[in-house]
Amino acid sequence: MARSMGAPAGRLNRRLPGLGEGFRKTCLRLGAVSEVAAAGVIGTGTHNTGISHGILPTQVVALMLLTASGEIRECSESVNTEIFQAARLHLGCLGVVLSLTFQCVPEFYLLETSFPSTLQEVLDNLDSHLRRSEYFRFLWFPHSENVSVIYQDHTNKPPSSSASWLWDYAVGYYLLEFLLWLSTFLPSLVRWVNRCFFWLLFSGQGETVDLSYKVFSYECRFRQHVQDWAIPIEKTKEALLELKAVLEKNPKVVAHYPVEVRFARGDDIWLSPCFQRDSCYVNIIMYRPYGKDVPRLDYWLAYESIMKKAGGRPHWAKAHTCTRKDFEQMYPGFQKFCAIREALDPTGMFLNAYLEKVFY
């Protein structure tokens, strides 16, 4: 077990190996926000990938909650069970999380293997890929068939990486930002950029071995807008092929790479996007080169329409246009969560403008 008093997730990952422990699905799988407090990452349902593993809140076994009345509640599967059920993914609206107890496993190393493929091949053989790797995900490069498949699995090999590949990767992202800035004046350039950078950075096979949290983690290079919806895993192929078809039929709609596709086991957390079903997360991105906004509305709306049709649920920490009416349809436990929230915070002390849209 590991107990956190609101420590940043990144700091927890750096400290746990020294204790001989490591998260089964490390907090640092958060990209640029690895320094967000642990209570925050469970509160929005942060996830990794791997169909045999749940989202990060599933690893919480106990917590302490300070409510609006000033009362401190200890919560677990055996104490204040309904509050615990709500507070594992709390949206910041139930009170102040004072401490969390995570279920951990012994420190382990991961071998990450990446190799090129095509979208059609991966979707046709999705079950096979899911069986081959414990932490399988893939990156699709819109406006093409190009895919980079990524396997991450336990290993006894010593730490290793390709220094030249890492150098190319870093330099490539500086070049990418400049080219995407140019594409704000010439949008058709995005298609060329996606193809070019797949072949420059992702078309070969690579291997890296390191501590689990270092392999899971990555840092975003520059500002971006993101959506990330979880859909039933059986809808993966249908939804991605429909998104591909939309881009092909609408040449004026451009999509930055990558579309990142990850997987998570179903759970019983009321506001979890994986509630009662194994899920596929489809993450889309539009970068902001040098802070400049890039037109994305048409892409965003098309994507959301496909995700909703597939029975999707949005990641709570990412962009979406959903309202309470949508959430009532998406989450069978939504009304139970609302009842807990209203009992713990009847005056709305912990609500903000975003949460008012969710609950009213």
Residue ranges: pLDDT <50 for 5 or more in a row?
A: 25-33, 163-167
Mean pLDDT across residues:
88
Report the structural category.
Answer: alpha+beta
Structural shape: globular
Strand content: 15-25%
**Helices and strands, in N-to-C order?**
EHEHEEHEEEHHEEHHEHEHEEHEHHH
- Number of E-type strands: 14
Q: Quick one: CATH class of the largest domain?
A: Alpha Beta
Oligomer: single chain
Question: What is the radius of gyration?
Answer: 20 Å
- At CATH level 2, the architecture of the largest domain is 3-Layer(aba) Sandwich
- Amino- and carboxy-terminal Cα gap: 38 Å
How are the strands of the largest sheet arranged? Answer: 10-7-9-8-12-13-11-14
Percentage of helical residues?
25-40%
CATH superfamily of the largest domain: FAD-linked oxidases, C-terminal domain
CATH topology of the largest domain: Vanillyl-alcohol Oxidase, Chain A, domain 3
**How many separate structural domains?**
2
Q: Could you give a short account of the major beta sheet?
A: 8 strands, antiparallel
Number of helices: 13
